[in-house]
């Protein structure tokens, strides 16, 4: 049930990033930026909150990457855990604790969790036939088997899921399975595993989610849960045959580890335990007290694990509370294409931080203003530039700069004493006091995108107020009026510093320094109260620009980088035409191919692709029109030895009769290449057979 009264404390988790690669904007937009906004908001409201994160370091993908790179799994996870953790810190994702699932505290916590369920009889123990790669001498994890989907026929379905129709699969259901490790056809081999019989929790899940959270869970999350439940739940293996992970803590389980999806969510608990120990706190209320609000921030690919499997585990265990909400986002695309780590189609966080130093908030803002909250969305560099130049610079930055400059100029940087408030001033201050509640309402409902626009509306309110009151015109004629106007404008600036903190923490910090915002005014609810955030006579700090304009050249550089990635991908993933139907030798023998030499070449007028060639075929010198002008200029190919199909029926191309064809192939970038004899001594007219 959604809690009606204010919870005693909050446990906020963000999906554990997998340590087989660095972070990209998809991770940030889907999980970490919204989670961080929510947590910073709760802190500004004075709520008790712990923000939990960590690296997910087990699983077959890490073990395989290590094998492929010829290093140990530990080297793989250490490398990426380091990169990921540093990027989070630099980007301002304000975890109270960032742990890792290779930590002893996690091995212990996950082991104990498994053991309790095992002792309670919550698992089914079963000997099954599993796919085995004889060549690689190992059992095949689901992700390392591909084959045709039994439901839709998609030829590249994975052993656990078909990405075409979304069906969840068993590896043994795949039609014509093959190992992605060795490419061989896997065999079946007996092995013992433990399963969590999810069907036992179906009734509980139906009541808890379908009845209890119909109103407060996002439709995309609720819908996915409903479809899982309507499909019927089945036992799910919680152990794996693998040499990397948490050993299964029971007898007869040698060589087996906990399935990464069993151990990873327990990582939230271990990370909380680690945090509490360091801070001298008790971790248990954060996971066991019913007055705690637990919220999991995740991407949509993790919904089933956080809404079906982990809650079933928590329910089975019996000591734990369940999540109040799982506000999963949809996916972010990049310039119209799906983000992909393996295809390097991404904006990598660690690269962004280097290329746009001190501009964390610009990315945070863009990803929030365009967040994939209800549907997949697209990140484009043009939008990034426009959000910065037209909103952060032109609206928010411009307002703050005006306020700072004018206060410095007119009052030597001190907040002026207002000289009577007119209706427009009172209305503006009243509108200002509505913002904390309006914004809070959006954030409490996980509508961060809406919240970011409300924040920008507060800056718009300030800009409009200044533009309407025109203090720069009144300063000569009505200086007492200007005192009031600047006083009101400064209150708006201070409100932006407080309410902007969850969205733009670095900017808020700068702004608080510019305003020298008193610490007792630095809280969310204070903005809404009938009091001034900046009292008259208060001295401001040094004024500075909050944002800078982003130039076209900077955006072009990023687009060029993506273009280069596209090219590289085209070379490696180019699909070849299918093999043609078989022909007889007679069919082949009909073709008369000869070695020739290009004697003359010129461009065909008004045709971009065509060159008109004179070719010595040994038999004669003939005219051949060839579509190679985009790859060669005429002077480059004079004297070139080539292969000519001489008995191709003559064709008329743009009024020139072409008597034959030059044989070509192409390189990875699509540039044409001549097929010619491997030896200069071959004479014109020699046949090819
Ligand atoms: Zn399918």
Q: How are the SSEs ordered, and which strands pair?
A:
Elements: E1 9-14, H1 25-44, E2 49-55, H2 60-69, H3 73-91, E3 97-100, H4 104-119, E4 124-133, E5 138-139, E6 145-148, E7 157-158, E8 175-179, E9 187-197, H5 202-211, H6 219-231, E10 235-237, E11 239-241, E12 256-258, H7 260-279, H8 285-288, E13 292-297, H9 303-317, E14 332-334, E15 337-338, H10 349-355, H11 360-369, E16 377-379, H12 381-411, H13 423-444, H14 448-469, H15 471-477, H16 479-499, H17 505-515, H18 524-528, H19 552-573, H20 585-589, E17 593-603, E18 611-616, E19 621-626, E20 641-645, E21 651-653, E22 656-658, E23 661-662, E24 664-666, E25 672-674, E26 687-688
The structure holds zinc ion (ZN).
Zinc ion binds next to loops.
Oligomer: single chain
Low-confidence stretches: none
Helix amount, in percent?
40-55%
Listed once per kind, the bound small molecules are: zinc ion
Number of helices: 20
Which descriptor suits the 3D outline? flat
Strand tally: 26
The main β sheet shows up as: 6 strands, antiparallel
Structural class: alpha+beta
Radius of gyration: 33 Å
Distance between the termini: 79 Å
**In percent terms, what proportion of residues is strand?**
15-25%
């Amino acid at each position: 049930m959604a809690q009606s009264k204010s919870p005693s404390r909050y446990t906020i988790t963000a999906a554990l990033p997998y340590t087989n690669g660095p972070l990209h904007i998809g991770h940030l937009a889907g999980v970490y930026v919204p989670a961080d906004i929510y947590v910073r908001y709760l802190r500004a409201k004075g709520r008790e909150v712990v923000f939990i994160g960590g690296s997910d370091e087990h699983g077959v993908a890490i073990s395989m990457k290590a094998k492929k790179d010829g290093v140990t799994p530990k080297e793989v996870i250490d490398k990426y855990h380091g990169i990921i953790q540093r990027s989070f810190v630099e980007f301002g994702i304000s975890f109270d604790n960032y742990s890792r699932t290779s930590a002893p505290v996690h091995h212990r916590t996950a082991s104990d969790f498994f053991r309790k369920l095992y002792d309670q009889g919550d698992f089914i123990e079963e000997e099954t036939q599993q796919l085995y790669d004889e060549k690689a001498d190992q059992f095949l994890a689901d992700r390392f088997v591909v084959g045709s989907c039994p439901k839709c026929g998609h030829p590249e379905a994975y052993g656990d899921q078909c990405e075409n129709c979304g069906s969840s699969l068993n590896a043994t259901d795949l039609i014509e399975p093959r190992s992605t490790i060795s490419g061989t056809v896997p065999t079946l081999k007996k092995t013992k595993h433990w399963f969590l019989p999810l069907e036992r929790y179906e009734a509980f899940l139906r009541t808890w989610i379908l009845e209890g959270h119909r109103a407060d869970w996002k439709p995309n999350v609720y819908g996915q849960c409903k479809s899982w439940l309507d499909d019927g739940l089945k036992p799910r293996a919680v152990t794996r045959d693998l040499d990397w992970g948490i050993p299964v803590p029971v007898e007869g389980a040698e060589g087996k580890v906990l399935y990464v999806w069993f151990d990873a969510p327990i990582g939230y608990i271990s990370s909380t335990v680690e945090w509490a120990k360091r801070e001298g706190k008790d971790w248990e209320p954060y996971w066991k007290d019913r007055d705690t609000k637990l919220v999991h921030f995740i991407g949509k690919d993790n919904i089933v694990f956080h809404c079906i499997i982990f809650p079933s585990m928590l329910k089975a265990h019996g000591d734990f509370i369940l999540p109040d909400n799982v506000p999963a986002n949809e996916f972010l695309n990049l310039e119209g294409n799906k983000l992909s780590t393996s295809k390097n189609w991404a904006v990598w966080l660690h690269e962004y931080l280097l290329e746009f130093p001190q501009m964390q908030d610009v990315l945070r803002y863009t990803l929030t203003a365009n967040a994939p909250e209800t549907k997949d969305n697209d990140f484009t560099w043009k939008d990034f530039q426009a959000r910065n130049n037209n909103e952060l610079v032109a609206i928010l930055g411009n307002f703050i700069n005006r306020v700072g400059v004018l206060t410095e100029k007119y009052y030597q940087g001190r907040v002026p004493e207002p000289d009577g408030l007119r209706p427009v001033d009172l209305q503006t201050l009243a509108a200002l006091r509505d913002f904390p509640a309006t914004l809070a309402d959006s954030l409490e409902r996980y509508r961060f995108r809406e919240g970011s626009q409300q924040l920008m509306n507060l800056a718009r309110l300030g800009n409009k107020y200044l533009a309407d009151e025109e203090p720069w015109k009144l300063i000569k004629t009505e200086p007492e009026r200007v005192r009031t106007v600047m006083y009101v404008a400064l209150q708006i600036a201070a409100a932006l510093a407080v309410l902007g903190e969850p969205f733009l923490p670095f900017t808020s910090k700068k702004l608080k320094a510019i305003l020298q915002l008193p610490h007792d005014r630095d809280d969310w609810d204070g903005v809404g109260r009938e009091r001034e955030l900046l009292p008259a006579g208060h001295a401001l700090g040094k004024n500075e620009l909050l944002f800078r304009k982003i130039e076209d050249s900077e955006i072009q550089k990023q687009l060029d980088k993506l273009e280069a990635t596209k090219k590289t991908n085209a070379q490696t993933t180019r699909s070849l035409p299918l093999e043609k139907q078989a022909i007889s030798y007679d069919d082949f023998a009909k073709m008369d191919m000869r070695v020739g030499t290009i004697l003359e070449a010129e461009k065909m007028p008004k045709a971009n692709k065509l060159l008109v060639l004179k070719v010595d075929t040994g038999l004669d010198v003939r005219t051949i029109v060839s579509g190679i002008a985009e790859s060669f200029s005429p002077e480059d190919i004079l004297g070139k030895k080539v292969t000519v199909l001489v008995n191709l029926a003559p064709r008329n191309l743009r009024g020139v009769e072409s008597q034959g064809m030059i044989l070509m192939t192409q390189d990875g970038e699509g540039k044409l290449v001549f097929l010619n004899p491997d030896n200069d001594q071959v004479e014109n007219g020699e046949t090819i057979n």
